[in-house]
Amino acid sequence: MPLALDSPCKVNLLLNILGRRPDGFHELETVMLPVPWHDRLVLDHAASGITFTCDDPRLPADDTNLVVRAARAFLTAAGLAVGVRIHLEKRIPLAAGLGGGSGDAATTLLGLNRLFGEPLALTQLHEIAASLGSDVPFFLYGRPALATGRGEQVTVLEPFTALRGCWLLLVHPGFGVATAWAYRELANHPEALNGAGGRGTELVRLLQAGDLPAACRRLYNALEAPVLRKYPVLALYQEYFRSAGALGTLMSGSGSTTFAIVADERQGRALRDGFVQRFGGQGRTELVALPTPA
Predict the structure, then answer these.
(1) Residue among 10, 39, 90, 104 flagged as catalytic
(2) CA-CA distance, 228 to 236, in Å (whole number)?
(3) Closest CA to 94 of 42, 59, 127
(4) Are 182 and 28 in contact (CB under 8 A)?
């Protein structure tokens, strides 16, 4: 019987770059939050091979696709000489800074593990996820996290008390930003490339303590330095959000999605209506409720 799973995205409440590593990656600290804006994956048994289909023709269906790579790595690690069929319904924008592809890869690992009777432990899934991409391990846990290293070292956290009842308005402007380009451009912004450590721990402390105003003042993304310079419209979005009463605003990941934190659904709808009136209907807006801590 096919297994259907929703695959969430994420926003970075903080992305602090601490310098370039000898292996070519960047050392960082990031506070990530799972967001219930979903792709959908349907997984099923097959006689042999990996068959991948997607309703978005822009996504490749070969081994360059993270979902296909995740499936192949899982079957190899589990020692399974079987086939799988995977269909992806793509809803999260591409090259948006939301980690949609990484989330799909992690959901594939979790889904195949479930489909085949849990042959791998979570630690083994984490190892596979880390080999696929820096953001992939985060999506295995479904909770906020502080990630370090190149992003693969994940400290899972309880839901943030400060965000209780809050909503997110996410705006994708209709264009993407290449992650590799954004990181390369950091060389022209040394203050953003070589940040001081500890921002992540401090932000987590404030979010867990329930101090949302102080936490929102510490939202930070080093990649805004190159991206907002090239795409000033994203800075205009943030200026509008602040002027309209958003509690906090930031670009997620390498962009281009920019989000605003609002107190409740009513404020979120008003903010979205005002945004559309001011900037027009280009791109896409999504208003989502954040999970409520128990």
Answers:
(1) 10
(2) 9
(3) 59
(4) no
Counted residue by residue, the chain has a size of: 294
Which residues partner with 84 through β-bridges?
45, 50
Tens of pLDDT, residue by residue, the chain (294 residues): 899 999 999 999 999 999 999 988 899 999 999 999 999 999 999 989 999 999 999 999 999 999 999 999 999 999 999 999 999 999 999 999 999 999 999 999 999 999 999 999 999 999 999 999 999 999 999 999 999 999 989 999 999 999 999 999 999 999 999 999 999 999 999 999 999 999 999 999 999 999 999 999 999 999 999 999 999 999 999 999 999 999 999 999 999 999 999 999 999 999 999 999 999 877 899 999 997 655
Bridge partner residues of 172 (DSSP): 284
Token code pair at residue 245: 């009463």
**Alpha carbons within 13 A on the beta-carbon side of 182:** 26
Check if the beta carbon of residue 46 is closer than 8 Å to that of residue 81: no
DSSP 8-state code for residue 120: S
- pTM beyond 0.90, yes or no: yes
Other C-beta atoms closer than 10 Å to the C-beta of 118 total 10
**Among the options 23, 56, 135, 211, which is catalytic?**
135
- Catalytic annotation present for 135: yes
